[in-house]
Amino acid sequence: MWSFERSRPLVTALIGFAVLVTSGRFACSAEPSSTDVRAAAIARENQNRLEVLVDEALRRSPAIEAARHRWESSAKVPVQVSTLPDPQIGLQEFTVGGPRPLEGYETSDFYYTGFGVSQDLPWPSKLGWQAEQAKEQSEYAHQAYEAARRETAEKVRESYFELFFLKKAFATLVETRDELGRTEKIAEARYRLGQAQEQDLSKSQLEMTSILEQIEMNEQETGQRQAELKATLGRDPDSSDIEVGDIGPGNLSLDAPRLQQLPIERSPELKMAEAMETGSAAALKLARASYYPDLSVGYAYQKTGPGLRDYYMLTVGSKIPLYFWRKQSPAVAQAALDNRAAHSQTRARELELSSTARSQAIAIQTAGRVMTLYRDGLIPQAKATRDAALNAYRVGKVDFQTLLSAVIDLLNMNQAYYRALADHEIAGAKLHQIIGEAP
């Protein structure tokens, strides 16, 4: 008589297999299996299809286009702030005896018409520090553009892998629905022969309803993911759905020291923080220079009445920071605090990126071990258990609940495998976003 007691040794062996895999003591063969070769070929084919979508998003994404325009706009600022203020031109007319122009020209020695020009001269090096600050702001916008490109590429990959999971989950749900339909027919035949209970049919219909509900929810989530991916690609929401192919697990080939260093070297988010820190240092220098007065130079020519010599006048002025304890000193203190905050933010961002990269690498490795566990152990065992339960139920050796449990367990394990595969690739995409290269 068939029973689950007979399969207990195999289950125990599978548990031991899982422990060996998760502890890192399970030794894999150096020669790749035919399954691994097929998986690698599938991965290459899907990678090409996926990269086509990524390239489309990089060309058409409105978010990337906006970031690029902001960068190009900010690049125009340094030359503006490093240029002297516009000169001022003045015209004066001094009349005597009446408000009309030229009145008193022939009768008064005080009449004159003057023309002058003046130029404000900021304290030396102020313009240079303003330009340096603007350049760092432009660099910040440049790195924000690069970050937008990476974020968009990661969104495309993540949506693609989620759609892959939903596609496989849908297939397993449909297969389980068909399997439940066949088991329901078996239960109905046995019930007519008086070999099964009516509640077996009720249980089968209840499970069928649950599967149908999951199929509906799967279709809803698929539609939402399709809409998100189309938006990322810059496509119209009513455009045709994006075809998703099969995927295979990618390979992580980075050692721990390299994985620690790459986010520091390549992350645009970190470079944005560094640009902000450098810009705040320039702002601090500029604030300290505000203690020094700006100058103003002017020159004027005055045309007097007939028989009198013309006037020529040179003027030099200066702005005195008289209220420095209310303006310049607080501004310097503010700039110093902003600079320290920017330095701390850079350090915090560096630690966050290193930690995130390590976490994603661990997620990739863990998902890989979980996939191996399901693919090589649990799923084959669940299939064998389902087949054995089906044969045993046909001859009345197990109850209907045992058969239903075996069918649902196989469904859950198949879905868990594809969930682990999708999570494996999503973690790889997130790591790709951080370090800027394929893991």
Outline the structure in words.
The protein has 439 residues and is α+β, with helices and mostly antiparallel strands. It has 2 domains: 4-84 and 122-290 and 327-435, Outer membrane efflux proteins (OEP); 86-121 and 293-326, Outer membrane efflux proteins (OEP), CATH 2.20.200. Helices cover 68% and strands 8% of the residues. It contains 10 helices and 4 strands, in the order H-H-H-H-E-E-H-H-H-H-E-E-H-H. It has helices at 8-23, 34-60, 62-74, 77-81, 126-192, 198-233, 256-266, 268-289, 328-394, 400-435, and strands at 88-94, 112-121, 295-304, 311-318. A 4-stranded antiparallel beta sheet has the order 1-2-3-4, with no helix packed on it. Helix 8 (268-289) packs antiparallel against helix 9 and helix 9 (328-394) runs antiparallel to helix 10 (400-435). Residues 1-30 have low confidence and may be disordered.
List the defining traits of the structure above.
single chain, 439 residues, alpha+beta, Outer membrane efflux proteins (OEP), 4 strands, disordered N terminus
Weakly predicted, low-confidence segments: 1-30
The CATH topology label of the largest domain is Outer membrane efflux proteins (OEP)
The order of strands across the largest sheet is 1-2-3-4
Q: Could you say what the CATH architecture of the largest domain is?
A: Up-down Bundle
Task: State the helical fraction.
Answer: 55-70%
Task: Provide the succession of SSEs.
Answer: HHHHEEHHHHEEHH
Number of domains: 2
